[in-house]
Design a protein that fits this description.
single chain; mainly alpha; two-stranded antiparallel sheet; globular
Length: 237
């Protein structure tokens, strides 16, 4: 594959087999897709009250407040936080395993964790929606900063990303970019637009978490010199 040409020899990840990967990623994606479908078809609550941030819903609600306000948005924040925690923990574990010997991996997962933490904070505190505009900055500034930081992370970790299950990484970035594009360029305020925008973001976050969780686990196995493992575990590709 063309991607292999960009992977430093010896930097190939220990990846699960196709059947195991299908099982693991199904555990991640099937509940998310079911949740989005349930939110769309359920007749009890306006979908906007489930998809939008709970604070935004509470501000405009005439019947404040309910525990389901912003439920799907809050799930996205939890997934961001989970991904950040995994990457920071992996950076710490690798540092304890090898110190300077694995400096590249320590920085890689540290950068990824910091980027993910920024995105989590943005979602939780509505940085680009409310905070920046109140400070006199356009929300476009946040998109530029996050895109720049993402480009830096991708460039630094390009070998490891291409050596892992990179289509899942592209899926994540693609869905997150789709969500941003809809937010910026489509001002039509209706339920379907809201489902596509926030649904794409939730799928993108899920893919981001899944990719980095697998990459982190397999990196620790490889650097820990775990050797070959059974088929249902990570093995050298």
């Amino acid at each position: 594959m063309l991607a292999h040409r960009f992977v430093v020899p010896g930097e190939r990840a220990y990846l699960p087999g196709a059947a195991w990967a299908m099982f693991v990623y199904s555990i991640a994606f099937v509940p998310v897709l079911v949740l989005l479908a349930a939110a769309w078809f359920q007749p009890f609550v306006p979908i906007g009250e489930l998809m939008r941030d709970s604070l935004l819903v509470a501000e405009v609600s005439e019947d404040c407040c309910h525990i389901y306000y912003g439920a799907i948005s809050n799930i996205g924040v939890l997934l961001w936080a989970s991904a950040a925690a995994i990457m920071f923990f992996t950076s710490l574990v690798v540092a304890l395993m090898g110190g300077q010997q694995y400096r590249h991996h320590i920085v890689q997962f540290g950068l990824g964790g910091f980027l993910t933490m920024l995105l989590c904070i943005d979602d939780f505190f509505l940085v680009h929606d409310i905070v920046l505009p109140k400070l006199g900055f356009s929300e476009t500034l946040a998109y530029v900063v996050y895109a720049s930081f993402t480009a830096l992370y991708v460039w630094y970790a390009r070998s490891e990303i291409l050596g892992a299950r990179w289509p899942m990484f592209l899926l994540s970035v693609g869905f997150l970019a789709l969500s941003v594009k809809i937010d910026v360029f489509f001002n039509i305020d209706n339920d379907f637009r809201l489902l596509i925008e926030d649904g794409a973001k939730l799928i993108g976050i899920t893919a981001w978490l899944s990719f980095h969780a697998e990459a982190a686990a397999c990196t620790i196995l490889r650097l820990g010199d775990a050797g070959r493992t059974p088929e249902y575990r990570c093995h050298n590709t």
